[in-house]
Design a protein that fits this description.
The protein has 119 residues and is mainly alpha-helical. Helices cover 63% and strands 10% of the residues. The chain has two domains: 61 residues, Winged helix-like DNA-binding domain superfamily/Winged helix DNA-binding domain (Arc Repressor Mutant, subunit A, Orthogonal Bundle); 31 residues, no CATH class.
């Protein structure tokens, strides 16, 4: 699975949300920061070349749909981030969020309960 650019990832989130979309549908979802139609079309075709999307042709028009599930991408992305920024340690991830005050004691207790239930 090739790494996506920020813009490609943004477009993938739109395609996952819409399930199937024409380029004009993606443009509507992008709102203010939508690139030119031709640029967006090129980015989506690049996603197709990378194996993330496929299309159904309706004459000269294409309707695109994701072929990589969001969960599969999330798993790969999170694993890469944890490896690159937290030395492959989930403990370091939780510690980081605790130190940044992005996670509460109650949330930590919930995480512990989830872990204990799985064992």
């Amino acid at each position: 699975m090739q790494k996506l650019t920020n813009k490609e990832e943004e477009i993938m989130h739109i395609l996952w949300k819409l399930d199937k979309a024409f380029v004009k549908d993606v443009m509507v979802e992008m709102k203010d920061d939508a690139p030119h139609y031709n640029t967006l079309s090129t980015i989506i075709r690049n996603l197709e070349d990378k194996g993330y999307v496929d299309h159904t042709a309706y004459g000269k028009t294409h309707q695109y749909f994701p072929i990589i599930p969001k969960e599969a991408y999330k798993k790969k992305f999170m694993s890469r981030a944890i490896d690159n920024y937290f030395n492959s340690s989930y403990k370091n991830v939780v510690s980081f969020f605790a130190q940044e005050e992005k996670i509460s004691v109650e949330e930590l207790k919930e995480i512990i309960n989830l872990i204990e239930k799985k064992q």
